[in-house]
Amino acid sequence: MVEYDVCMVNKRMILFAKRFRSKAPLAASLSPTQLAARRGRGGKSLLLILCISIFLATSISYSATQKFKDEVGREVAFSFPPIRIVSLAPNVTEILFSLGLDEEIVGVSIHCNFPEKAKSKVRVGSYISLDFEKVTSLKPDLIIATGVGNTRDMVDRLGNLGFQTYVIYPKNFDDILKSIAHIGQVVNREKEARMIIEGMRKRSQRVIELTKGLPRPKVFIQIGDAPVVTVGKGSFADDLIRLAGGENIAKKEKEVYPRFGMEEILKRSPEVIVISSMNPKGDYQKILQEWTRWKTIPAVKNGRIHLIDSDLLDRPSPRIIDGLEELAKVLHPERFKAISKNVILAKAGIHKLLTLLDSRLRGSDKLRIIRGSLKK
């Protein structure tokens, strides 16, 4: 494709030169002075055409292929920027859409459910079972996978088929920010990535500041019900509990997602229980009801059992900041209620002031704008 583009540029330049020559007056009809001037201008024009041709050819060659090192240390070289991208994981898809690459995304995994536009993209398989024929038919410039789900064998097979695959491998909140930055680099959307990262950093810092110095409640997050499975050290949810001002009762477990018996849960006495909606077909009202049997658990006794969308807790995408804020509100409701109350009181005070001003400045456009913004 690159050779074709360079060739086309050169052909157009040659055609332009021929037209230039065909339109020039015959030498016989010009005086010696005119002929010399014409030759000088013609030589300069042809030199200019040659320089432009060489510049465009080298520019196209330079921008055609770039090399990047992915998050597992592999070197990936592909046409840059990529214009046909396949995502093999939901978090990758969310990052790509957040960067504004709606048109460039040509294929996604069957697990990609957000944003709504992702559901209309071609499905290429699951985390571990890929439809290689479908991927081939999409002719992607770049495939982006995740080390937290996609297999090495899958990535190697894609490479054998001639497809370049960039792998991200986030393990905690800070890693997610890095992955967004890295994807921004490989798809030529660094500015957009920086804006997303800055917004996430500000919001996470606000949560940390609001919960600083507060008692850290003991937290149990349930992600499976048969058997009961929780989150251990090294999981995204464990990192969110820490950032939100809580203490994970399974933080010292060796497994990332350990199984817990009820006897162990009773022994560790969680003060807050969070049920993650990981199974889309799960009967969560039934699960909530089952917890009410265990009255000696502080979280049950005090009615502190909550349901949070698993996509916000365990999917390393820009939306994980929403999960952090929601978890912080669950762990420290009194802190966030107080802030909400202060905001309401502040708005009420502003409304009173505006009413007073409105009586003096009726019909002011500026006042209408301020009132409209306060309703948001």
CATH topology of the largest domain: Rossmann fold
- Give the tally of structural domains: 4
| Main sheet record | 5 strands, parallel
Seen as an oligomer or otherwise, the chain set is: single chain
Strand content: 5-15%
End-to-end gap: 50 Å
Assigned CATH class of the largest domain: Alpha Beta
| CATH architectural arrangement of the largest domain | 3-Layer(aba) Sandwich
Name of the CATH superfamily of the largest domain: Nitrogenase molybdenum iron protein domain
What is the mean pLDDT? 83
Into which percent range does the helicity of residues fall? 40-55%
Poorly predicted tracts of residues: 1-28, 57-62, 341-345
Q: How many E-type strands?
A: 13
Structural class: alpha/beta
Show the helix and strand layout:
Layout: H1 2-23, H2 32-64, E1 65-69, E2 75-79, E3 85-87, H3 90-98, E4 105-108, E5 122-123, H4 132-138, E6 142-146, H5 152-160, E7 165-168, H6 173-186, H7 190-211, E8 218-222, E9 224-225, E10 228-229, H8 236-243, E11 247-248, H9 262-268, E12 272-276, H10 284-291, H11 298-301, E13 305-308, H12 310-313, H13 320-331, H14 333-360, H15 365-374
Parallel strand pairs: 3-4, 3-6, 4-5, 6-7, 8-11, 8-12, 12-13
Antiparallel strand pairs: 1-2, 9-10
Helix pairs in contact: 1-2, 6-7, 7-13, 13-14
